[in-house]
Amino acid sequence: MNRSRLSVRCCPSTACASITSMEHPSPIRPRDFAVYAPNKMGKSTIFRSERVMVGLNAFESGQEHALHAHEDMDKIYQVIEGRGLFLLEGDDVPMQAGVLLVAPAGAPHGIRNTGTERLLVLVILAPAP
Amino acid sequence: MNRSRLSVRCCPSTACASITSMEHPSPIRPRDFAVYAPNKMGKSTIFRSERVMVGLNAFESGQEHALHAHEDMDKIYQVIEGRGLFLLEGDDVPMQAGVLLVAPAGAPHGIRNTGTERLLVLVILAPAP
Q: Hey, CA dihedral for B97, A59, A110, B26, is it positive or negative?
């Protein structure tokens, strides 16, 4: 089978995943790759090429990713589990599992877990950062 | 608010969506944009830029998207509802709502709805076709 090996993304923070290998295409459950951290949003990377990064943002209750924008990248959020707010420019919007949001390049966006449960969001950035 | 208008994708087939306008970033439920067709897989487009296309593939029971590959695009599938098979090279793999698959450029992939219910899959292609 034609499988590509994951370009592993390692980083020194304890809030980043240290996935050592994954072959694609392989069906996975995103939640199996979630990395939560006590002090800030956890990140993990499922796939990376020059064209796209597929990863997870994992929020304990109360954690957030503050409003920010990417000048030359489009971001797609798909909420896997939990609930909270999408932080948009002047307009915070409730969301929950099943909801999708596209933040085109230049559009400010962020996330806050306002719920009592964990919040897990699939994140796709094109091109990869 | 900094919102980008959807680049509308129209096509003559009845199996393609004719979404006339959508602003991003806006939280949506992907299923609200599903287009099913009696004779073949239905397609709809949620967002398109030069960097990425976000859309839906909608399968009535028994419908499929045959094994194929994209030479210069990575594809991400996220199953929204239903169940079926991911068609991979020599290896068809059961899947259902909640499952993610990344088909890197060059990797053959496809989908078949082997269930009795509708199958809806979020599809992301980078860069956009």
A: positive
User: In chain A, positions 33-92, which contact chain B (CB-CB < 8 Å)?
Assistant: 46-47, 49, 51-52, 54, 69, 73-74, 76, 78, 80, 86, 88-91
Q: What residue of A is the nearest CA neighbor of B111? A: A27
pLDDT at B22: 76
Which of B1, B2, B19, B111 to mutate to test binding with chain A, by most A CBs within 10 Å of its CB?
B2
Question: Containing H/E element for B45?
Answer: strand B42-48
Residue of chain A whose Cα is closest to the Cα of B110: A25
Segment B46-102, tens digit of pLDDT = 999 999 999 999 999 999 999 999 999 999 999 999 999 999 998 899 999 999 999
pLDDT band, very low/low/confident/very high, at A15 (cuts 50, 70, 90): low
